[in-house]
Amino acid sequence: MSSHLDTFLADSEKRSFDPEHRRRLDFNIGKYDEKVKVGKQQYADLELARRRAAVRKHKALSNLDRYLVEFETNFVKRGGKVIWAPSEKDAQKEILAIIKHADAHLIVKQKTMLSEELEINELLIKHKREVVETDLGEFIVQVAGEKPYHILTPAMHKSKEDVAELFHEKFGTPQHSTPEDIARFVREQLRLKFIRADVGITGGNFLVADAGALVLTENEGNGLLCYAFPKIHIAVVGIEKIIPSLDDLDLFLPLLATFGTGQLITAYNNLIFGPKAPGEPDGPEQMYVILIDNRRTEVLKHKEQRQALACIRCGACLNACPIYRSVGGYTYGAVYSGPIGSVISPHYMGLKEYNHLSYASSLCGKCTEVCSVHIPLHELLLYNRNETVKKGYPKSGWKFIMKSWKKVMLKRWMIDKTGSRLKNRFFKMFFRKMWGPRRELPRFADKNFKQLWQEKQQNN
Length: 460
What we know:
Blueprint: H1 4-16, H2 19-39, H3 46-62, H4 64-77, E1 81-85, H5 88-101, E2 106-109, H6 113-118, H7 120-126, E3 130-133, H8 136-143, H9 160-171, H10 179-196, E4 199-202, E5 206-208, E6 213-218, H11 222-228, E7 232-238, E8 242-243, H12 249-261, E9 268-272, E10 286-292, H13 296-300, H14 316-320, H15 324-327, H16 338-349, H17 351-354, H18 366-370, H19 377-390, H20 396-409, H21 412-417, H22 420-435, H23 449-459
Parallel strand pairs: 1-10, 2-3, 2-4, 4-7, 5-8, 7-10
Antiparallel strand pairs: 5-6, 6-9
Helix pairs in contact: 2-12, 16-19
């Protein structure tokens, strides 16, 4: 039985040397880079905005218990219901209970990575409910029987030809349909689903404590329809999404839009304060916000790694990461991929089994450079690695190599007395396989720097 690490290495090699895969990612991310460069020009001082966002998220995380209770109090005042779910199973149990009690059979969903984390689709299908993804990208991967490839762009790995072929196979649409044709077809399909839906499930970009409001920001309008049409609205939101004040949206919404898609502001920004009030024509009759922990408090325990909970899911770090751009989203074997996923996924899924994700980085620091809320991601990866070593998770062979290396590096005479031939033989014996079959193993020079320097001084 192969380990998660073995699977990761095998998939990485396969994806990295697939030219078509690399071409698609480079093309899509290249378009993203162009738009973000333009979007950032709306800021007079972008660095100041990022620092302010970091400070406000730090404030929220440092007072998480107080702000969550404040949100619950204000949300319940307007007729909403708040359910606390410590784990994935708790969340699944509560969602299923609501749906069964309402005798609901058709559920429409807005794109939310948390629903992937909770495996909501699989849960509902198991209980013979029809669940429909209403975001275009999510709809495509659902039809394909796949998972989202990217935090923000679920179908990034597919070309327009792939999608046309998929829809031709599944729905009988013309084989050479254009993206506009596909969008028109999906819109027509979803309109009937929205009208007939019993329950709408969404995520939440932010929870506003002082207003008791749920914030949904989107570009397609499907999130609003998931809220407005069904009689019951369920929002699944991680506890880390809390922000103190409605005034904070003035900072966070433009940042999310700029770093996420290069827009000045997202097309639809919905503030939802609860179920519809008497006399209001639209909105759900019942609204639930399920606050998800699911090991987020485990990350919160760590003095340094807790900064990762400030993430607003803009996806910028994935697009900047040379590793993600090479191996793609599925290789990580986790809901959250890229640099942010490499920090939080080991804590969500088990550090012992998934610590290799924290090593899936060149530590170039590009992820930190582009983070919209100033999370020092490459540093947090090092903290994860340090914790992995302290807990004794690395393989025994790697421990032996590192102990031997430390012993040699602390004794200068061992480096000086060992000839280049012996050094090269040692490296060939222990590092050739690790270095990979496509790269030439570096060779030690006949004389090291110290010897060359001594000779230079003698000659002078």
